[in-house]
Amino acid sequence: MEIRKIYDRDVSLLGFGLMRLPKTAEKSQDIDYEAASKLVDHAMTNGVNYYDTAYTYGGSEDFAGHALSKYPRDSYFLATKCPPWMVKTVDDFERIFAESLKRCRTDYFDFYLVHNLAQESKRAAGNDEYFRKFEMIGMYDMLKRKKAEGKIRRLGFSFHGTIALFKKLVDKYEWDFAQIQLNYIDWTATDAKSQYEILTERNIPVIIMEPLRGGALAALNKESAEILKQAQPGASLASWGIRYAASLSNVATVLSGMNTMEQLTDNIATMNSFRPVDDREKELLYKAAAIYNRSGAIACTGCRYCAPCPEGVDIPRIFSIYNHYRLVNYRIPFDNGYSTLGEREKASSCIQCGLCVEKCPQHLAIPEHMREIDEFAKSALP
């Protein structure tokens, strides 16, 4: 397993993101402990030592405690995140931090993050609501106290916001690392390039999330996929995305939300014989990205931050079904997939309240997309 140094620690270049673990059933959010534990065991056996969870990933911290506590504590690095939108007082922070420790069955966190610090809210008139709350309650001081107590070894943040705020955040506070969304589409689409460069200039190590954009880059449209398959017939589409993110020298680890053994073994193989992408391969990736962007697929990563919808609309599932249609350009799979949704789960139930927009890290215009997909779905009816 390829190793990167983050301060005095040797961290595996492949990190295990514990947000998209296998579930007990297709529509269930309950983690399949048996299947997920097998993945963690295989990852540990093959040198993966960085595991990322969060307080708000339903059941993920509990699972992390279950799966990792049987291993020596110094054999893996555990990262979790505190949701600033849930912290209004010092007592809130203390309760959440204590719950995370208990769930994860640990006395300390190797890496602790302020979760999604720069989420923007329409209700806050375009301001960065989570960041304002973070500053208003003095949350940074709370975190520094935990670090001084030895309960946090390294302190960081994850980010989905503007470059202006990003600069302010890294210049005003002292951080040990930062977690950003970076892949060969978002390098320019969300200006991940600037975020990476800002961190690198300040010698702040980078953790990468969404290297495959929620799995989208492992299932490109036919024309984009063909470009990469012709260049390397034996390489998976996922390996291209993982290699792209890992090729950046200031990246400490690349998180992948693996939920099948096939995904895990493929990513391990990529990092066991890691080869950085060269300039020619970058050009191929950017060409594939440009074609993919023209497909009309919606930039949903399947994070489910928008859920649950108060009206019952299954937003992530709808986007998944629709994006598959956009990529294969074939109507029947859409109709078949959409028909499996209950009436309340369909786009027609959207009342355009906008609550989902405030929660979406990608800042998608979800109500508008729901209206468009509803019209598309109804167009197939006699």
Account of the protein in words:
This protein is an alpha/beta fold and 382 residues long. It folds into 2 domains: 291 residues, NADP-dependent oxidoreductase domain (TIM Barrel, Alpha-Beta Barrel), CATH 3.20.20.100; 65 residues, no CATH class. It contains 16 helices and 10 strands. The strands form 2 sheets. The protein has an 8-stranded parallel β-barrel with strand order 3-4-5-6-7-8-9-10, surrounded by 5 helices. Helix 1 packs across helix 2, helix 1 packs parallel to helix 11 and helix 2 crosses helix 3. The termini are far apart.
Task: Characterize this entry briefly.
By secondary structure, this protein is of the alpha/beta class. It contains 16 helices and ten strands.
Instruction: Report the radius of gyration as a whole number of Å.
Output: 20 Å
- CATH structural class of the largest domain: Alpha Beta
Largest sheet: 8 strands, parallel, barrel
- CATH fourth-tier homologous superfamily of the largest domain: NADP-dependent oxidoreductase domain
Query: What's the CATH topology label of the largest domain?
Result: TIM Barrel
Architecture per CATH nomenclature, i.e. the level-2 architecture of the largest domain: Alpha-Beta Barrel
Question: Roughly what fraction of the amino acids lie in strands?
Answer: 5-15%
User: Termini, distance in Å?
Assistant: 55 Å
Question: Mean pLDDT, nearest integer?
Answer: 88
Number of domains: 2
Structural class: alpha/beta
Number of strands: 10
Order of strands in the sheet with most strands: 3-4-5-6-7-8-9-10
What form results from the Cα inertia axes? Answer: globular
Which H/E pattern describes the elements? Answer: EEEHEHEHEHHEHEHHEHHEHHHHHH
Helix content: 40-55%
Q: Which stretches are low in confidence, meaning pLDDT under 50 for 5 or more residues running?
A: 120-127
Number of helices: 16
